[in-house]
Structure formats: C-alpha cells, structure tokens
Sequence to fold (557 residues):
Amino acid sequence: MAEMVSSEKREKIIVTGHRNPDTDSVCSAICYARLKNLYSECVYEPCHPDTINSETQFVLDYFGVEAPRQIDNVRTQVKDIEFRKIDGVSSGISLKQAWSLMQTNGVVTLPCVNGEGLLLGVITIGDITKSYMNLYDSSIISKARTKYANILDTLEAEILIGDKEAYFEQGKVLIAAANPDMMENYIEKGDLVILGNRYESQLCAIEMEAGCIIVCDGASVSLTIRKLAAERGCTVITTHYDTYTTARLINQSMPVRYFMTSENIITFTEEDFLDEIQEIMALKRHRDFPVLSSTGQYVGLISRRNLLGAKGKAVVMVDHNERSQAVAGIETADIREIIDHHRLGTIETMSPVFFRNQPLGCTATIITQMYDEAGVAIDRQTAGLLCSAIVSDTLLFRSPTCTSIDKATALRLAQIAEIELEAYARRMFAAGSNLKGKTDQEIFYQDFKRFSVNKSLFCIGQITSLDAEELDSLKPRMIKYAEVALEYHHVDMMFFMLTNILTESTELICIGNGADLLISTAFHLETQSVRDGIAYLPGVVSRKKQLAPVIMMALQQ
Fold:
C-alpha cells in the first residue's frame, strides 16, 4: 500500500467566552462564529468553558439554538498538530514490500493493522535489517508461514501449478545443486526446492514429494512435469532470476508479522496532551509512535520532530482578555483574535492578533457592528441572541456601563427578533433568578471573576434578581459559602453582589482580611454601614464599571 495522504482539512478555530459564562459570552461566541463561517476558509466553533447558567439557557431555548460544546481546557493535543498520516499495512506483506514502502515514503516504521484498522504491531527498518543479518535455519520460510503470493512478488515470478493464495508452511528451502541420486538423500516431504532447467532434477524433487519447486533462469517447464506436479500437489514457480539471486532474495518474501513488534507497543491517542507525551517520548529511543483514534483505530505516526514548533489550538477570545478568566490551558493556545469590552488584562500572545476592544456595555454590541461592517444581514435568531446579551449585560439599560450605542443596537435587534423588549427582559431575568433547587456552589459561581492588583488577589461573584425576598433568603447561604470560596481560591478578599434589578441596588458580601474596611473607605461609607460583612450600595449594579474599578483604585492607594 502507498502512503495515505488525508484530504486537506479546514482549520478549526475555537471561539470561547470566559469561565463561568454569562449570556453575553455565550451568545457573542455563537454569533461571532456564525459571522466568521460566512466568509472564512476556516471552521469557527463556538464553545464555553463551564456550565451554562439558567438565564442563558432560557435565551437559547427561546430562540431554538443548541448550546455550544463545553470544553474543559485548550491545552495542545496530538490532534492539533501535524503528524504523519501513513497507511497501515497488512501484517502479511513481505519484507521486500515493507522495505519498498519505507523507501518510497521516507519512513523507518510501518504500522500493521487488521481489517478494522486496529493496530497489530509495528515493523521498523531495524527489524528488516536484523532479518537479513541474522542466521536462520533453512526452515525459516515455512516457520514464518509465507504466502506463495509473496514469493511470486519477491522473485518477480510466475506460478504454473498451484494456488498463489496458499501458504508454504511445511518443510525447508534448499538448492538442488547435486545430481538426482544425491538429491534423494536430503529432499523431504513438503520442502521448497530451488533448481535449474534439468528435467531429471525437477522430476526427482516432485517424486520426493517436495511442496514447491522454483525453476530459475526463466527455464521452461515441460507438460510432463506440470502434469506430475499437479497430480502430486507440488507448486511450480518460474523466475527469471538465477539460482544464487533467487536463494538470496527468497527470505525477503517472508511476512512482516514474523518480525514485527506486537507487544508492549507505546501508542498515543489523538486526545493525548503534548506536554504529557513529551515526557514519555524523551525516555524512549523509538523514532515513531503510533497514534490511535478515540475508538482505537490506527490513524498515523508521531515523532519528536512533529513536536518542534507545534502550535496550540487556535482560539478566538470573546468577552474577556485576561488569562485568569480564560479557559484552562490558554497559555499554550494560538490566540488569533480578541473581541472584548472590558479593561485590558494580562493575556500574552505568541504573535500579533486582531484585537478589538471598545468601551461599550456589551461584547454583543461590538459583534453587531461587525455584522454591519461586513454587510451581512442579521437573521431573527442571531438578532435574538445578540439582543439578549445586551439586555443581560446592561440590565435592560439600567447599568452605568450601558451606552447610547448599546441601547440603540438592542432596540434595533429586538425589532428583527420580533420581541417586545420589556416583557421579554422580565422573562429572561426571571429565568436567570430562578435559583430554586440549585446548590450554594452553583449559585455562587453563576457569574464569578478573579482579579489581581499589584500583589493583592480578590474575586467578585454576582447574582441579579427581580425578587427582593429571594435575595434576602440567599444572603446567609452566600455569606457561608464565601468563606469556603475564600480559602479554596487562596485570595485575600472575596466579594459577592446580591443585585436587585428593580431597585438598582446591591448588597455586597465582604469576606477576607480588611474587606469590609476597604469597601467602607472606597465608597465613603460610615463604619456602621457595613454590618456583619455586608455593605448596602444604592445605585451600584455593575461589577465591571462600579465595583471592580473602585476596589482596584482603593488597593493601589
């Protein structure tokens, strides 16, 4: 078999929002991937790092959109890099065929597979070399159960009598160099005899019940010999090679299965991570390692050379630009684009990227602009997703992060999506604040982000609701869980916002050394205003614009 060259695959690029995804990050990822797939040669796939919250799920269900694939990390895997796609070969091919394939394809290893593509073993150039150099007894051809078809191919021969699909599996190989009287002393039943054009020698070999005779030098075989061979079950083969060359080449007809390595083979799967297989490869002297699919089929060979300069997964980041908020493994990813509306963070890229950051209330507003700039009409479903994202991020235009552009964009999208904005927003927020049956952990991490300023680390979580009683009932549970989260994340302070959309206010849980004092100072509150680790912040509804910047400024001072 020749080398299998796989058809060119379109490059896959992951479009993902931040950890603890909200409606903006999920909907923006979906809509941006749709836009890119309209005119790009690559395949853009929207993904999300964590569980989708109930508000976002409501939006997806309302507009009939399937949730994107969830990804745990974007660490580089074997399937992300170029490795050699060499066809697997049958373990029955000859050593000569294997050698020829290696020379043609410039490889030193061939994988042997069965009819289902499962790996049986590997044959290397070293194995073939050993087969030539090692001293074997004259019965090695039959011990290897060599197919006559292999012998024909190796000797460029023709079969006159017999079945080329049969196997030579009994007897030894010998050369009939003596006269017939002497030949009778060493030819045994089933032997393969290499001889010339002498009628007497051919007749003697057949009468001594040889399993096969190979007539060299292109000599003709008489009808009498053919008839007798057929009657005695003796295979007759003719080759143009002389006796010496035939004897030298015949060992190359043996099947590779007799020499291949079939046990303790080190294999990797397409799902394996490069940083893990590198350690294993460094400890082994093998040149190539078989790669298997997730279902166990052989797909190719990987070597240390394939790891040199390997690029990570191609990723587009939306609605965030900080490493601490990105999906795990982002440091090994090949970041292609960043579309965001937050402050600039600490992400580093390997090469220049397309970076679009605008001071707007929502990433979806930017995505909408990009549709307009590309001259792409926005369909009802896409409009619904983008509009929902803006409504969510701006709390229906109540958030101070909301700009006139956000509002105008959302109103236009609402018309395309055929929704009455106020009524739809109430249903969406109600779905998001439906926290019954959820664990403290699920509620706490529903919208959660980590921040760093100088050497200080802190986290802010937030839930929004239209129901004041629901927020009051959650308060003691969130205070207790905030203590757990503080210790788990090893940060200095933990804050949690209980935001009432209707009253446009927040009760802020403050946990950690000096957290309550920091908030009192930052918001110029009277000391008694922060009681039992809870501060009441009227008019504060935005983590991004009203809380996080104030905390950062206070820490810097």
In short: Residues 1-8 have pLDDT under 50 and may be disordered.
